[in-house]
Amino acid sequence: MIREIKTYPNKILKQKAKRVGQIDAEIKKLIDDMAETLYAKGGAGLAANQVGELKQIIVVDIGEGLKILVNPKIIDKKDKAIMIEGCLSLPGYEILVKRPEKIVVEYLDRQGREQKLKASDLLARVICHEVDHLQGKTLLDKLPIFKRWTIKRKLKKIIK
Hints:
Blueprint: H1 25-41, E1 45-47, E2 57-60, E3 67-86, E4 94-108, E5 114-120, H2 121-134, H3 145-159
């Protein structure tokens, strides 16, 4: 089922997601819905709070197949690169963001098995972006205060 993407200023985007305990049928359904939503909306990644669920789950596909990360934790970061990023929750905006070029992330897979993934370049960037969402952070939090304030005002005018 395709879910509605929560967009700024929805308060759920500023809340921290909770760790997933057991990966049961309900969690697997949420994962399936998130994957279907990701593909329908043409994104590279999606965090559960972007579809209204405060659970630590992200789905990512940069053209190399779907990756499902439950309770993702970035345990190592190397190098930095600046690139333009967009976000399904901030439609129409692209922002220059500095992120690690290489990461190592620990997570649970769909079956609840512990996994470790070394990611670089675009995959590392997308995972970091989605993990930020799970921490209640959006691209706007990466901006200097004045620029953030200006974009927030524009977004609020569009909503009204």
